[in-house]
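Re: your question from the hallway

Yes, I did run it. Sequences:
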Amino acid sequence: MRVSTLSIGDELTTGATVDRHAAWLATRCAALGLRFEEHRTVDDDRHRITRALRELAARSDLLVATGGLGPTLDDVTREALADALGEELVIDEAALTRLEARYAARGRVPGERNRRQVLRPVGGRCLPNDNGTAPGLEAVLDDCRVVVLPGPPHEMHPMFETHVADTLDSKGDAEVPVTINAYGLAESSAGDLLGELAARDASPLVGIRVSWSILAATIRGSGIEPVARQVEERWRPFAYGRDEQTLQEVVGGMLGARGATIATAESCTGGLIGGRITEVAGSSGWYGGGVVTYSNECKERLLGVPSELLERRGAVSEEVAVVMAMEAARRFGADYALSTTGIAGPGGGSEEKPVGTVWIGVCDTTAGHPRAWARRFRFPGDRTWVRDRTVKSALQMLRLHMLDASVPLIWEETS
Amino acid sequence: MRVSTLSIGDELTTGATVDRHAAWLATRCAALGLRFEEHRTVDDDRHRITRALRELAARSDLLVATGGLGPTLDDVTREALADALGEELVIDEAALTRLEARYAARGRVPGERNRRQVLRPVGGRCLPNDNGTAPGLEAVLDDCRVVVLPGPPHEMHPMFETHVADTLDSKGDAEVPVTINAYGLAESSAGDLLGELAARDASPLVGIRVSWSILAATIRGSGIEPVARQVEERWRPFAYGRDEQTLQEVVGGMLGARGATIATAESCTGGLIGGRITEVAGSSGWYGGGVVTYSNECKERLLGVPSELLERRGAVSEEVAVVMAMEAARRFGADYALSTTGIAGPGGGSEEKPVGTVWIGVCDTTAGHPRAWARRFRFPGDRTWVRDRTVKSALQMLRLHMLDASVPLIWEETS
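Structure:
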């Protein structure tokens, strides 16, 4: 079964937005055992959308198009589909009823623009959307099944599952690819460790990619599981999870399993570690809270970091990171605590402490008395980069500590 | 001048890699004043590449293709271009000399695989690549100029500048597009407010898109500035900035200009507001810090929220949001404070307080005495969605308060 995809939107053809739907749909189609024919991107131009729909339908059995279904006048995908089919648009009464019910639940009535969203080509049908006002559309064009879905990912993804994936006869007999995720290793070391496993003619095939310093080895083909275990073994202790698992999920799961809690005391990360930890549903089970002490005054006032220490060693110092972690654990009554203090840039660097210098502190009180220590990192990259890698390094440090694994992480200064 | 782009590679059609070249090239082409016709993505299949080259050449004046020029056997773009042209491949002597010199500099000799990279169609030419072993290719197909560049971004980007951008007669005399950003309005209302400004045949052209509930109206064409001001006027007070400006930058800039400071007390957002505020370089000028009080115990211990209040009204209540904001302002000695308490889901909802219910509190002490209030929201979407919109709504609430503008935001419950 040949599948093609079409992304529609001015924001894509002007480069304002990176098209992530293409990769998401390609991944899902591959998992469903569909053969990928072609992907196209066009702007919100009725003629160009119509042409792309016709051409792709002619060479595909299934065409999934996304975008251009919103209420505004530049959303013309409905009209283009009608043009491609040579049909008129009519109001879909069932979709209108759903739209009105959705508005009524909030005590409102849909306006003229929103009512445009329930138009469909005469011979097509509307696909219900549980997460937004725009229904999808389905029609048959030139023997090709055409499915049009709204652009917002939290609407498009579940609609693809319901209206496309679940309707296919073949769910794909290929083994589901497995991805092993790791953090704290350089890409070249990660490649060296995999050695012949990652050869281009190996079976199953192991592909490594790196995104925001998260290493991901994806294993495709047949006989996946034994190779996945070998990758985990070779990347030990840096490999932390599989597929969509995140560091914060894994660390949260470990804390939950131990019935342990964690607190945070953040300076340069400004709350990002707390934000990341609480991304995980159920995190109230292991996270009571934290403090963001961005200024020195706050470090003194909220955590009792001695002003003498701040003056003598500076806020970005081992001692301050240790006191922050220890005080966070104490004040929140937590089993573990993480602290960060560093220079995220672009300003604030010095010769001794250049931009990218960060101390990450850990406190462990599970032995009945608090033990705290800190490690120094020197992260390359800009402000966003430094802060993101600080969060990841802190979570990985805690994970490795809980596993009793002591290894330096990438960018750690081990002098 | 109509331009199309073509991305080539199995990693794109399997979804292993997100295609960032499409957006990068679209941005550069827009800046050069080229009219974008179509983007396509195909796998490393000789037949499909040939077909895409032919079809895109027929509807474009310039076609920029990327990928499939490497030394391995799955790189077949050279062969496909020759097929499309109906020409043979021959060795390009100048390119071979450059390749041999490149290897000689490291004391090596190129192998058979690498020598494949200096093949070109008889009537085409090789484009030097200063950052890699694969030259680009250029040829004329069906009156369309076809340029093929290697896939690695650090090779492709400079080659595009040298071999494409610098060779164009017109460097683009088009005005630079302007984008107006807004938050707090429904997309349909935003469209209604723009009315005829956003007509598909208007000049300049106004296109609206929405990403994570941030509305963006991009104005393209000529006579941009007066229309940009009209968009800002019609979207007042929700429009907060232009182009790359973020809410946290704008709010930070306003605080900085007033010499005012802000503190945060976060529950359901877990530190994300602090993280967002400190994303802005120089934010230590207006942000001292905050607390994350995720559990009730922390709300009592760190902010002195009365346990009686937590029991009687619940943590997700107007009163608790107000006390949190007030106590944050007091304890940090800040001029303003923001607080959040809500049910991000997926669990924890009830009939009275369903998932998505969030109270956002604001405290203002600039009149010499603290004033605090809170507003109730009911956000749709999943956990990530609810938390993200809570952060944006909190920042927009503070911005509107500082501007003395009092309007309800989208998803606010105004009973």
